[in-house]
Write a structure and sequence with these properties.
Its main location: membrane. With 226 residues, the chain is α+β, with helices and mostly antiparallel strands. It has helices at residues 2-43, 56-59, 154-161, 194-220, and strands at 63-70, 75-81, 85-96, 101-110, 121-129, 167-174.
């Protein structure tokens, strides 16, 4: 009797924990979807002027339109595009009409065009402010001599280019940059695996219950005499 009670407690208790974890992941899924929906709404809003004082927390994804001048000097961030292959994000210093210096992510250029001379001069750029979190302990150090970066690190790029730590990711530019395809900000890279996690926990709960029932039935089955 004690062993049967123990199996019941372990079986039901373990299943309850696994089900709770699945429910928690469903709640996290709803939370993440709300965040992504809010970001998408913010990205698609009408562009405004760049704030006089840019706040990383308040102004992330803010759509803005700026006018100014592209300067010489670039940072090349190694990326890959589906159906195209390896290439680089082209990050260029941009001087606003009020004298502030920011960075503009002009978009994607194929690897063979990495060192092609690009036009500078006056331009109007519309895009979204972004402080991407692309670096971690596994990210290689930038090859400054070869001008190859492996992630967009806004503070480090700003120090290299001599700008404010403000990155505007281009949606459109007038005039357009020859040989560069804009890579506008989107939410596709924001991880959202909570549904898969929930399915995993619920599946484990079902397996746990099934195994518990199997052991209980085996425990209660009459022993046959040999």
């Amino acid at each position: 009797m004690r062993r049967t009670l123990f199996l019941l407690i372990v079986g039901l208790g373990g299943a309850a924990i696994l089900i709770w974890l699945g429910v928690w992941q469903i709640q996290r899924l709803a939370w993440k979807e709300a965040i992504i929906a809010d970001i998408n709404t913010r990205i698609a809003a009408a562009p405004v002027d760049l704030p006089a004082s840019v706040n990383r927390d308040l102004d992330a994804y803010l759509p803005v339109t700026v006018s100014g001048t592209f300067e010489q000097g670039e940072v090349h961030v190694l990326v890959s595009q589906k159906d195209v292959g390896a290439g680089y994000r082209i990050i260029t210093p941009f001087v606003l009409e009020d004298g502030r210096r920011i960075m503009v992510d002009r978009g994607f250029a194929v690897a063979s065009a990495k060192n092609v001379a690009r036009s500078d001069g006056p331009a109007t750029v519309t895009g979204n402010l972004q402080w991407p979190q692309e670096t971690d302990s596994f990210t290689p150090e930038a090859d400054l001599k070869g001008n190859i970066w492996f992630a967009r690190d806004v503070p480090a790029m700003a120090r290299t280019l001599g700008t404010q730590p403000v990155l505007l990711v281009t949606r459109s530019s007038t005039p357009p940059a020859a040989g560069i395809s804009p890579l506008p900000v989107d939410t596709a890279r924001i991880p959202n695996d909570h549904l898969q996690y929930a399915i995993t926990w619920f599946s484990l709960a079902a397996i746990w219950l099934g195994m518990s029932l199997f052991f209980l039935r085996r425990r209660r089955a009459p022993k046959t005499e040999s």
